């Protein structure tokens, strides 16, 4: 921690640049929460004591780092696994052409540290999954500037798992780290303040983000009508049939050669069926599921997030919550501007903050593969690729039924897929332990036979 | 390098460096990008708010910007910004710039937590080395780093001398009036503590490609054109004969649903049968509409399957029996004085709208031109493509009618036939059901409106009337104006900034995000 260093740098700051901010933080006001202490303590808290984690150094991340450091949050960590691409430059203003190919987190941190005197931004160029609970525990506030549902779900589960409870089931104060989740898509966006086990967690409101609807296979295979059908056919069916770059080469949408093959293959099919509109750009859009993104929407959403962080940190004003009129702000900038701040309910059977096993009802005869399919489709679970195990008389107390994540175990367990689940579960009411890439921790699933 | 001054040979302008612009173009299209690249935005006062607006315009590639500001970095200035969009482009494309600026603006309204600024603590686009330098140059330099295609101009002059400084006397605001009269949109933004205000002052903006999330479309099911009827006839619903699938041993029912028929054919045929049984009338009462849906159920039963295309056909039923209503926004445009038969408005947009109106009243039989778009539906490839072509061909016929009307109007105005291109006409025809018009009040009207004096009561009911904020911000302006005119102290703490600590009403707003639109 570079806190002494930061203090020094703040002290030699010649220009009293925080004066406007201090005007907000120095005086009591009727909008402040009961925990607001106007004066030096709060300033000290902001500049030197609070450590904020910004997850994602993309469109939202760049804006967040700018806004947060200008709000006086000088100790920030930023984590992002991505490198800079040319297509980022229309909005990610901390990056220049010469930075293409470098780590977003590193370049963004360097830029901020150079531009904002006293700022100490620490970059982490890695996947969020590579960091453990000890890492995430260091922060007082976590801001999510992510574009992927999966990463959000993982972060949500990780942060919720950090909360600790006393014997009466009450949260140990300070162990539930508040999260501010921002998201944008074109001209629309949202800001959601999550206080684990107090407000609904991200998993509780997952139905607001319905899964992508896929085209029916028979349409792709036999009766394509639109250019998108042709691209999806090339991607989902023709690639696996032809394997144009060798049997071991999987489709990599970021590889221009692969994209060119997809485009040509889709174009040929479109011509064969008399369908118009397949271009390279269109193919990229469909295959990579590109979402339009501009600076302005990111600026709006990130700004709202940053203000929530300030309120959470200092209590200078009430943050978005159920009590203050809503914890979830939606923003629609498409047709003029519409925003609304609302509240959702916590879900009793939330697999993350419900604190109990999710109950699923199945027929006794189903196979392991069918059970896995059910867990993927279940609207509460929406798992991606679960590994499952049952309590057993082994040294670990568990026996793996199926695990696709570790190659050696996968080889050993994949034949189990076709076996009935009843080979492992003798009676109704057994708790399976599930490991899935969208979750940071293991989940319990209670299997009931019907 | 993109030319900052737009000229009318727009077709020559080619989007360069398109990979960088990919994510923006996917939002507003190539024409939107071109419009932006022809735009020239002027800001008065390089405040944080203005700088944020410019950042969000420079990144996607606005043609040029001009900053008028005579402060040195770190001085204290009025937190008022004015943004003028001097987009000398065809009205019909200019829209996109507008839409965007409007979006961007919100950005700053929310972004900025502070008002009278110490630049370094607030403005990301000045640096420590900037202190003491002319702010317009510093901000310009740091913004231009973001996009080498953009041109920037800095004018180190007092914006307040260019426009007069007193917000409360806008009738003296000759500059504002000039802008209004020339049709140049003006945007005003302010930020105080946790509150912001944004005001669009738009004499008129016509939006052709409004890109709505759910585009309105008329499929003319209630009044099919001959080619559509002929297409539908080919599907023999009585015997469930699909026209493109020969009856063979392997396809015992021709509706073997590997080759489903488009939902349009069901909906239309059901409608035709219904009308044949009801003296040619459409289903009108609720009961009749239910009967009509039951008819579709019968067709479905005949096939004996719960098929996707029947589900779609039932969803289409409403379109089939209710004659298409021209959307109210479009109706308002068509009935605007500028679209009247005696209008002499020479603007290409309005000439085309006049032609559109003549088409609706004439050949269109009450309908707007078709867009030629057909949504995907459950059907075999050939049926779908054929139906798509039928709609496209009709759209082309509609458009040529509108073109002929445009030529008539141009002749009557003694204008050359080529002042309006076919491309412009096609674009409006294609978007006819979704064109939009934006006109706001002028600032003069706003500031001379007599009702202002009675608004104080709103302050007592902030929950019901979020406009109380507007009242407070107007009061703050007046207070500031009073102080300026009395030549009071202008130290940092008394520069007219109302901080949350001072005013309980303003502070109230910090409770939660709360926004409101007013007409
Ligand atoms: Zn939850």
UniProtKB/TrEMBL annotation, chain A:
Pfam families: E2_bind, ThiF. Its EC number is 6.2.1.64. One of its GO terms (biological process) is protein neddylation. GO terms for cellular component: cytoplasm; nucleus. The keyword ATP-binding applies. It catalyses: ATP + [NEDD8 protein] + [E1 NEDD8-activating enzyme]-L-cysteine = AMP + diphosphate + [E1 NEDD8-activating enzyme]-S-[NEDD8 protein]-yl-L-cysteine. InterPro entries: E2-binding, ThiF/MoeB/HesA, ThiF_NAD_FAD-bd, Ub_act_enz_dom_a_sf, Ubiquitin-activating_enz. It is an enzyme of class 6 (ligase). Residues 360-450 form the E2 binding domain. It comes from the Eukaryota. Pathway: Protein modification; protein neddylation. GO terms for molecular function: ATP binding; NEDD8 activating enzyme activity. Keywords: ATP-binding, Ligase, Nucleotide-binding, Ubl conjugation pathway. Belongs to the ubiquitin-activating E1 family. UBA3 subfamily. Catalytic subunit of the dimeric E1 enzyme, which activates NEDD8. This is NEDD8-activating enzyme E1 catalytic subunit. The lineage of its organism: Eukaryota, Cryptophyceae, Pyrenomonadales, Geminigeraceae, Guillardia.
UniProtKB/TrEMBL annotation, chain B:
Keywords: Membrane, Transmembrane, Transmembrane helix. The keyword Transmembrane applies. The keyword Transport does not apply. GO terms for cellular component: cytoplasm. The chain crosses the membrane at residues 76-109. SUPFAM superfamilies: Activating enzymes of the ubiquitin-like proteins. GO terms for biological process: protein neddylation. One of its GO terms (molecular function) is NEDD8 activating enzyme activity. This is NEDD8-activating enzyme E1 regulatory subunit. It comes from Guillardia theta (strain CCMP2712).
């Amino acid at each position: 921690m570079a806190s002494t260093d930061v203090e020094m740098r703040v002290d030699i700051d010649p220009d009293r640049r925080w004066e406007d901010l201090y005007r907000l933080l120095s005086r009591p006001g009727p909008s402040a929460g009961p925990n607001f202490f106007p004066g030096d303590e709060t300033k000290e808290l902001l500049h030197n004591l609070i450590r904020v984690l910004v997850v994602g150094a993309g469109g939202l991340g760049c804006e967040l780092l700018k806004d947060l450091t200008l709000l006086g949050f000088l100790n920030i960590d930023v984590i992002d696994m991505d490198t800079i691409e040319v297509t980022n430059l229309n909005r990610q203003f901390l990056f220049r052409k010469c930075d293409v190919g470098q780590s977003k987190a590193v370049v963004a941190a360097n830029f901020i540290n150079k531009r904002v005197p006293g700022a100490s931004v620490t970059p982490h160029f890695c996947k969020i999954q590579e960091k453990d609970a000890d890492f995430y525990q260091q922060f007082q506030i976590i801001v999510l500037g992510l574009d992927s549902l999966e990463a959000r779900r993982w972060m949500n589960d990780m942060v919720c798992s950090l909360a600790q409870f006393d014997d009466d089931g009450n949260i140990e104060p300070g162990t539930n780290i508040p999260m501010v989740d921002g998201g944008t898509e074109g001209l629309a966006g949202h800001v959601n303040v999550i206080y684990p086990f107090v407000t609904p967690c991200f998993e509780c409101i997952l139905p607001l983000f319905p899964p992508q609807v896929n085209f029916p296979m028979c349409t792709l295979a036999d009766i394509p009508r639109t250019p998108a059908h042709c691209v999806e056919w090339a991607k989902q069916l023709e690639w696996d049939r032809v394997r144009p770059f060798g049997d071991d080469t999987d489709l990599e949408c970021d590889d221009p050669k692969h994209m060119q093959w997809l485009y040509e293959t889709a174009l040929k099919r479109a011509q064969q069926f008399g369908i118009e509109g397949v271009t390279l750009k269109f193919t990229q859009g469909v295959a990579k599921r590109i979402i339009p993104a501009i600076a302005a929407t990111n600026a709006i959403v990130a700004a709202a997030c940053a203000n929530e962080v300030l309120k959470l940190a200092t209590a200078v004003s009430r943050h978005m919550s159920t009590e203050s009129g809503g914890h979830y702000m939606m923003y629609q900038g498409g047709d003029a501007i519409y925003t609304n701040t609302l509240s959702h309910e916590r879900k009793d059977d939330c697999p993350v903050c419900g604190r109990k096993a999710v109950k699923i009802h199945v027929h006794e005869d189903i196979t392991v593969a069918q059970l896995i399919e059910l867990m993927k489709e279940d609207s509460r679970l929406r798992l991606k690729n679960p590994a499952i195990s049952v309590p057993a008389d082994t040294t670990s107390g568990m026996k793996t039924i199926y695990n696709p994540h570790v190659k050696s175990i996968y080889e050993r367990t994949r034949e189990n897929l076709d076996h009935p689940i009843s080979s492992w579960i003798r009676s109704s009411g057994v708790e399976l332990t599930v490991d899935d890439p969208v979750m940071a921790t293991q989940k319990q699933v209670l299997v009931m036979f019907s | 390098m993109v030319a900052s001054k737009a000229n009318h040979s727009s077709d020559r302008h080619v989007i360069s460096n398109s990979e960088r612009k990919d994510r923006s173009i996917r939002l507003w299209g190539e024409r939107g990008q071109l419009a932006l690249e022809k735009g020239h935005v002027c800001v008065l006062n390089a405040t944080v708010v203005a700088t944020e607006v410019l950042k969000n315009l420079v990144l996607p590639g606005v043609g040029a910007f001009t900053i008028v500001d005579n402060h040195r970095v770190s001085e204290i200035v009025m937190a008022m910004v004015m943004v003028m969009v001097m987009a000398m482009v065809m009205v019909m494309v200019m829209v996109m710039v507008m839409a965007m600026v409007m979006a961007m603006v919100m950005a700053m309204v929310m972004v900025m937590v502070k008002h009278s600024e110490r630049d370094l603590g607030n403005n990301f686009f000045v640096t420590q080395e900037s202190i003491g330098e002319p702010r317009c140059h510093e901000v310009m330099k740091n913004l231009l780093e973001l996009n080498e295609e953009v041109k920037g101009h800095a004018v180190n002059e007092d914006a307040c001398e260019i426009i007069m400084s007193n917000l409360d006397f806008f009738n003296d605001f000759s500059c504002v009036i000039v802008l209004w009269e020339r049709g140049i949109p003006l945007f005003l933004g302010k930020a105080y503590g946790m509150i912001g205000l944004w005001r669009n002052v738009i004499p008129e903006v016509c939006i052709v490609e409004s890109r709505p999330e759910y585009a309105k479309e008329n499929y003319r099911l209630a009044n099919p054109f001959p080619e559509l009827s002929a297409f539908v006839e080919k599907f023999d619903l009585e015997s469930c004969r699909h026209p493109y699938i020969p009856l063979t041993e392997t396809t015992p029912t021709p509706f073997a649903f590997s080759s489903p028929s488009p939902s349009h054919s069901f909906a239309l045929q059901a409608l035709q049968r219904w009308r044949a049984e009801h003296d040619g009338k459409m289903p009108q009462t609720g009961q009749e509409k239910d009967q009509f849906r039951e008819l579709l159920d019968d067709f479905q039963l005949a096939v004996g399957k719960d098929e996707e295309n029947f589900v779609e056909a039932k969803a289409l039923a409403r379109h089939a029996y209710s004659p298409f209503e021209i959307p109210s926004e479009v109706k308002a445009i068509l009935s605007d004085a500028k679209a009247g038969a005696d209008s002499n408005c020479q603007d290409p947009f309005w000439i085309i709208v006049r032609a559109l109106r003549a088409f609706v009243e004439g050949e269109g039989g009450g309908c707007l031109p078709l867009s030629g778009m057909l949504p995907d539906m459950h059907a075999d490839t050939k049926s779908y493509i054929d139906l798509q072509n039928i709609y496209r061909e009709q759209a082309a016929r509609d458009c040529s009618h509108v073109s002929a009307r445009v030529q008539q109007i141009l002749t009557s105005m003694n204008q050359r036939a080529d002042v309006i291109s076919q491309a412009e006409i096609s674009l409006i025809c294609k978007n006819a059901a979704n064109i939009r018009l934006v006109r706001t009040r002028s600032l003069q009207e706003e500031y001379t409106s007599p009702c202002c004096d009675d608004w104080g009561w709103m302050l007592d009911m902030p929950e019901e009337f979020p406009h109380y904020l507007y009242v407070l911000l107007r009061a703050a302006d007046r207070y500031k104006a009073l102080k300026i005119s009395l030549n009071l102290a202008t130290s940092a703490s008394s520069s007219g900034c109302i901080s949350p600590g001072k005013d309980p009403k303003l502070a109230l707003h910090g409770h939660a995000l709360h926004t409101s639109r007013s007409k």
